[in-house]
Amino acid sequence: MPFSEAVRLALTSLRSSKLRSFLTVLGILIGVSSVIAVVAIIDGLDSYIASRVLELGSKSFSVQKMPDIITSANQWIEMQRRKDVTMDDVEAVRRGCDLCTEVGAMVATSRDVKYGRVRQNDVRIMGVSENFSRIGSIRDLIAGRQLIGEDVENARNSVVIGADLMDAFFGTMEPIGREITIDSRSFRVVGVAERKGSIFGESQDNFVWMPITLFRKYYGSRRSIVIQVEARSMNVFEEAQDQARVVMRVRRHLDYAEPDDFNIETGESILDLWKSATQGIYAATLLVTAISLVVGGVVVMNIMLVSVTERTAEIGVRKALGAKRRDILRQFLVEAVILAGFGGVLGVLGAMAFAAGLSSLLGGMMATEFVAPVRLWAVALAVAVSSAVGLVAGLYPASRAAALDPVAALRAE
Amino acid sequence: MSAEPVAAPAGPLILAEDLWRTYVMGAEEIHALRGVSFAIQPNEYVAIMGPSGSGKSTLMNLIGCLDTPSKGDYVLRGKNVSKMNDDELAEVRNREIGFVFQTFNLLPRASALQNVELPLVYAGIPKEERVARAKRSLEMVDLAARMSHKPNELSGGQRQRVAIARALVMGPSILLADEPTGNLDTTTGNEIMGLFERLQREGNTIILVTHERDIAEHAHRIIFIRDGKIESDERR
Ligand SMILES: Nc1ncnc2c1ncn2[C@@H]1O[C@H](COP(=O)(O)OP(=O)(O)OP(=O)(O)O)[C@@H](O)[C@H]1O
Ligand SMILES: [Mg+2]
């Protein structure tokens, strides 16, 4: 019997008992979706952290509504009650911190960007103050000009793009003066930033900078702002942070005893926390996955044994008509693999829904957009592993079916 | 001497010599067949009769290559089947035997056409040819109009005709029927027996197991079994 025939047969058989098939694969579904979801979340967090680390150079820090890494649900709820950081706060820090050489503002979101028919997905759209490129790690340009004071003051339609967009849209063409489209609005390219490569496998060149005034016009002025600060030197780094802290505390009328209701983040503080957190998460996920795959395999094996018993007469008929051992073996193995693989596919869909839900939930609440991307390799691995589970779980029931004596099998009914 | 290759082995279609079939149940041995010998020529129409427990089904399983004798030789079209392994037997069943069962034994989820296709699937015949041959076979039993019906959408007589179409589709040497009318009313049963007669006239060899005298009367030869032995073998 050809393989395609076995697949067709297995699908018919699984279709005829949909609910049972679904319940059978539940364990595998849970295992697979938890792996993919966790990989997606950590991936998303990785890129989030990476972008934060990059923005903060060695003598720069940021003042923001929430910390970059939140370690508990309670903390997260607590953070929601905080006041947004406003443009007035930026102005106050600028005036009140004399150890700071630059005080800038940044807001960000994530959008698809188009040039003609070409689309670049999940581009970081940043609304920035004029001095943004001079804070933290310096970004030089490879073409055109930086955003200038007039751009920001007049909310002028001018943007600087990252090297990824340059590659995707223009190649060797002249980029300056061309119009790109974000949310069906046109933006004029005035500069292209130099390439920074990727951190944690996340590209650092997939962005658009626009004047913060323009950003707030299009994407709302009610988002909490990240204040970007450059200290005069490494020696006064801590003092500069304290100055900024005092300004913020005074503006918020905080008592001596009260804790800060905002966060000051530096590159180092983020990285340390992050490294220790992810290891634990990965280990826990691996364990959950292993357990649910084993459970899933046992359930698949059990249901296949039931199926073989229920279909003993059918096996007898098939053997009487000329089915060989390997035909029967293949029929049940393919069925087990498809059953488990189907669990894998459902798991992938579940994980996608989960990741999308999480992205939009968290995205709206963080200073920068949070995206949990479902990785192709994670999907392929999940489906491959679950199919392998089906193969192993199906082997015993299938060989039992193949070994049935045709006379005895025909008598069953 | 002729230079031409030998087309078909000369001699009978079936040659059974001293067939024994012994079931071992714990310490006990049950001899379901005790030395049965007979020969069947191509295009014969034979009924095997006998009381319950006499060994009819056991003999039928041997003739159908579903089982092998404990002792003795069973030669089908010149090939000794007695010592074959499972997969070789499966192939012989696929090519040489067309089974018709008392309970029809159609696959409930498959259409009539798909049921008839089944032996062709295991013979490795490609889809297109399979469908064409299965349709032709259904036409032979006048069921072409019902080919997309599932078994539970067919009457008992129609189901048995689908089973006969399935049995014929590979062009087997023997049509082997075990109580084919056992689950049918008299009228429908007679229809099926009429179909068998026609198929025999068209050149098929038919072996029928039954305990009903009326049904056996349709055959041209009746082998009567009792206690695992042939009691009589009459041609009519
Ligand atoms: N698998 C088996 N194990 C043990 N004994 C068996 C087995 N199959 C058949 N027998 C015995 O062999 C004898 C012949 O059985 P068989 O089924 O061939 O009879 P039969 O002529 O077909 O009867 P019926 O008309 O009731 O179908 C019986 O005594 C039966 O109990
Ligand atoms: Mg019987």
Describe the model.
The complex is a heterodimer of chains A (413) and B (236). Chain A folds into two domains: 3-53 and 272-411, no CATH class; 83-261, no CATH class. Helix content of chain A is 55%, strand content 17%. Chain A has helices spanning 3-15, 18-24, 26-55, 73-80, 87-96, 149-153, 163-170, 212-219, 237-251, 267-310, 312-320, 325-363, 376-402, 406-411; strands at 60-64, 100-115, 118-128, 141-144, 159-161, 179-182, 185-193, 198-199, 202-203, 207-211, 226-231, 263-265. In chain A, the strands form two sheets. Chain A has a six-stranded mixed beta barrel with strand order 2-3-10-5-7-6. In chain A, strands 8-9 form a two-stranded antiparallel ribbon. Chain A is elongated. The model of chain A has no long low-confidence stretch (mean pLDDT 86). In chain B, the strands form two sheets. A six-stranded mixed beta sheet of chain B has the order 6-7-8-3-9-10, sandwiched between helices. In chain B, strands 2-1-4-5 form a four-stranded antiparallel beta sheet, with helices on one face. The N and C termini of chain B lie far apart (38 Å). The model of chain B is unreliable at 1-7 (pLDDT under 50). The A-B interface holds A 1-2, 5, 12-13, 16, 313-314, 316-327, 406-407, 410, 413 and B 61, 64, 66-67, 86-87, 90-91, 93-95, 99, 101, 103, 105-107, 109-110, 118-119, 121-124, 166, 170. The structure holds adenosine-5'-triphosphate and magnesium ion.
